Amino acid sequence: MKLTPGRTGAAKAIMSRAQALPRLPLLLIAAAALGATSPARAALFGDDEARTAIIELRGRFEIQNRESAARLAELNQRIDALGQRLDRLEQVSRGQLELQNQLEQLRQEIARLRGQLEIQTNELAQLQRRQREIYADLDGRIKPFEPVSVQIDGRTATVEVDERKAYETALAAFRGGDFAGSAAAFGALRSRWPSSAYGANALYWIGSAQFALKDYRAALATHQQFIARHADHPRAADAMLSVALSQIETGDKRGARRTLEVLIEKYPDSPAAPQARERLTTLK
Predict the structure, then answer these.
(1) Could you give the angle at the alpha carbon of 43 between the alpha carbons of 42 and 44, nearest 5°?
(2) What's the mean pLDDT in 85-111?
(3) CA count, 13 A, side-chain hemisphere, 182
(4) What is the separation of C-alpha 146 from the centre of its chain, rounded to a whole number of angstroms?
(5) Which ranges of 231-283 would DSSP assign to H, the alpha helix?
(6) Which one-letter DSSP state was computed for residue 147?
(7) Do residues 34 and 42 lie in contact, with contact meaning Cβ atoms separated by under 8 Å?
(8) In terms of C-beta distances under 8 Å and separation of at least 24 residues, what long-range contacts does 89-98 make, across chains too?
(9) Are 182 and 170 in contact (CB under 8 A)?
(10) At what angle do helices 47-142 and 23-37 cross, to 10 degrees?
(11) Please, are residues 115 and 107 in contact by the beta-carbon 8 Å criterion?
C-alpha cells in the first residue's frame, strides 16, 4: 500500500509502535541468559530446575510472541483499513475538486452567454428601431400614392391620388371657363384610367365642354354615348336635355321633340324635366 503525504505522520506513529513489539522477547531471553550465567543464580538452582525455568520462559516467550504477532497483524489490518479510508477520502476530494472545477467552468460559460445575450438584445433593439424609422419613412413616401376613398355622386369609391387630382383639375378648368382644356383633361383621365370611378362623370363633362364650345355634333354624340352606358346616372336627365338642345342647334327639331318627351316620361322628377317641358312647348 502506498502512503500519501497527507497521512505520513499517522502511519509513521503506528509503524514505530508495531516495530517495538518484537524486541520484547529478545530482551527477556537476554535477561534469562544473564541470569543463568550468574554464579549466585547457579548455586540456587540445579540442572532440572534450570531446565524447567528455561522451558517456562520459552513458553512465556512463545505466548508473548504469538500475542505480539496477533497485535501486529491487528495493527496491520487497522493500517490497511485506514489506508483504504484515506484512498476513498482522496477520491471523494478529487471528485469534489473536479465538480467544483466543472461548476466554475459552467459559471464562466453562463456569464459569457449572458454577455452575448445582452449584446444581441441591444443589437436587436437597435435593428427594430431602425426598421421602425425605415417603415415610417416609407409610409410617408408611399402614403401620398396609396388609393383613397372618395364620394362620387353619393357613392363611395376608391381611386388613386393622381387620378383624383386629374379629375379635380379637369373639373376646375371647366368651372373656370377653360372648356377646351377641360375636355382634353377629362379625355386624358379616361385614357389613363379606363376603369376609373370618375369615368362616367368625365364623359358627361366632356360632352358639356363640347356643348359650351358650340361643337354640338360632338356634344350630341358624347351625351348619347353617356346615356346609353349610364342611364341610371344622376346626370342622365341633364345629358338627355343636352342631346335635345344639340339636336335643336343642328336643325333636328323632330328628334329634339322625341328626346324631350322621353326625358319627361323617364325622368319626370328630375331638375331637367321642367326645362324639357318648356322647350317642348316652344317646339310645338
Answers:
(1) 95
(2) 82
(3) 23
(4) 30
(5) 236-249, 253-266, 272-283
(6) -
(7) no
(8) 90/4, 90/6
(9) yes
(10) 160
(11) no
Identity (one letter) of the amino acid at 169? T
User: What does the alpha-carbon distance between residue 105 and residue 117 come to, in Å, rounded to a whole number?
Assistant: 18
Q: Decide if 248 contacts 220 (C-beta within 8 A).
A: no
Phi, psi of 152 (to 5 degrees): -120, 110
236 burial (CB, 10 Å; 0-12 / 13-18 / 19+) is: buried
Q: Tens of pLDDT along 224-243? A: 999 999 999 999 999 999 99
- For 91, other C-beta atoms within 10 Å of its C-beta total 10
Q: At what angle do helices 236-249 and 216-229 cross, to 10 degrees?
A: 150
* Cα end-to-end distance, the chain, whole Å: 144
Residue 271 per-residue DSSP state: T
Q: What is the DSSP string of 75-115?
A: HHHHHHHHHHHHHHHHHHHHHHHHHHHHHHHHHHHHHHHHH
Residue at 80: amino acid letter: D
Q: pLDDT tens, 47-74? A: 777 778 778 877 887 888 788 788 888 8
Q: Identify whether the C-beta of residue 233 lies closer than 8 Å to the C-beta of residue 200.
A: yes
Strand 155-159 relative to strand 148-152: parallel, antiparallel, unpaired?
antiparallel
| CATH topology for the 159-283 domain | 1.25.40
The span from the CA of 95 to the CA of 182, in Å, is 96
Return the bridge partners of 65, or none.
none
Listed in sequence order, the residues at least 6 apart from 254 whose beta carbon sits closer than 8 Å to its beta carbon are none
